[in-house]
Design goal:
Layout (H helix, E strand, L loop, with lengths): L1 H11 L12 E7 L4 E5 L6 E6 L2 E4 L7 E7 L6 E6 L6 E6 L5 H18 L12 H34 L10 H22 L3 H14 L4 H13 L3 H14 L4 H13 L16 H15 L1
Parallel strand pairs: 1-7
Antiparallel strand pairs: 1-4, 2-3, 2-5, 5-6
Helix pairs in contact: 2-3, 3-4, 3-6, 4-5, 4-6, 5-6, 6-7, 7-8
Length: 297
């Protein structure tokens, strides 16, 4: 029941308006106006610019009956919207963008300044002995790296609920009691995500731990738990959670990237930038190797 209700809300968010016509037309709006609208290729995940909202787009058969639109605007969070449409149908798609938090704006500003400095040809070459201003720059870059990851962790939580809703584990063929349990796990993950966005990390952990108790193999729950631990600066706790996530889902690139960062902070050495494609996943090899080194010490 909970799952059906949330799916209904998801599709209502698209606010489809059927307009009888031979060839379909898509009317796309955003609040506030002026956001860039992209369409995402479901095969390559690459995005193509459609235009600036509001805009009208003629139906294209190559889009299929389900596709994704991405809305981007400065000082607002990026929003991805799933569109489901029948051939020849005209619809109106509306997306309301959420403003960035002060922490996210600070991260964007630091990132922009960092990019400008990299492009500045007048930048002095590094010297063997660092000056006080060089040390200050290193500190700013370290803060930028920290903020970028914190923002990524916050943004990443918004996708967990959608991923859980469309997980193969919730497809047909599941016994009723297992389906009820899965719906409860999805609900707890969603509540944890909402608590994170409000900055209530203890409550978020409470919901996530309940989800893990019900389904210890939920990789989304472990990934989300690692994010909360990292945001609390509990790097050891984040390490344990993300390692567990990769044990369940060894090819999870997001967990692999975050775990590499936390390894560096714990002095264990980062993971290779791109793990080798092999039957025994690179993430499992690297985790076992570092834990073995720690036991030897």
């Amino acid at each position: 029941m909970f799952l059906r209700r949330q799916l209904k809300l998801l599709f209502l968010a698209l606010t489809p308006v059927v307009i009888s016509a031979c060839a379909g037309k898509y009317s796309i709006k955003s609040y506030p106006t002026g956001s860039k609208v992209y369409i995402k290729d479901m095969q390559s995940n690459e995005k193509k610019l459609l235009g600036i909202a509001p805009l009208n787009v003629q139906e294209e058969s190559k889009l299929g009956d389900v596709f994704f639109l991405i809305f981007e605007k400065q000082n607002y969070r990026t929003k991805e919207v799933m569109v489901k449409v029948n051939e020849g149908e005209s619809i109106a798609v509306q997306a309301r963008l959420d403003p960035l938090s002060d922490e996210e704006k600070k991260a964007e500003e630091l990132a922009k300044n960092d990019d400008n400095k990299k492009q500045d040809p007048q930048q002095p070459k590094p010297e063997d002995k660092k000056k006080p201003e060089d040390k200050k720059m290193d500190d700013l870059l370290a803060e930028l790296s920290e903020l970028k990851l914190r923002v990524a962790l916050l943004e990443n939580t918004s996708s967990f609920y959608k991923d859980a809703l469309f997980s193969p584990r919730l497809s047909g063929g599941m016994p009723a009691q297992d389906r009820d349990r899965s719906e409860k796990v999805v609900g707890l993950i969603f509540q944890g995500q909402q608590a994170i966005m409000k900055g209530n990390y203890p409550q978020a952990l409470e919901h996530i731990d309940k989800a893990i108790t019900m389904d210890e193999y939920s990789n989304n729950a472990w990934l989300l738990k690692g994010s909360v631990k990292y945001l609390q600066k509990d790097f050891q706790g984040a390490k344990i959670a993300w390692e567990r996530c990769l044990k369940i889902d060894p090819y999870n690139k997001v967990a692999y990237q975050y775990l590499s960062d936390v390894y560096k902070r714990l002095g264990m050495g980062p993971l290779p930038q791109s793990g080798a494609e092999m039957r025994y996943p690179a993430s499992t090899i690297e985790i076992d190797k570092r834990n073995q080194e720690k036991r030897v010490r």
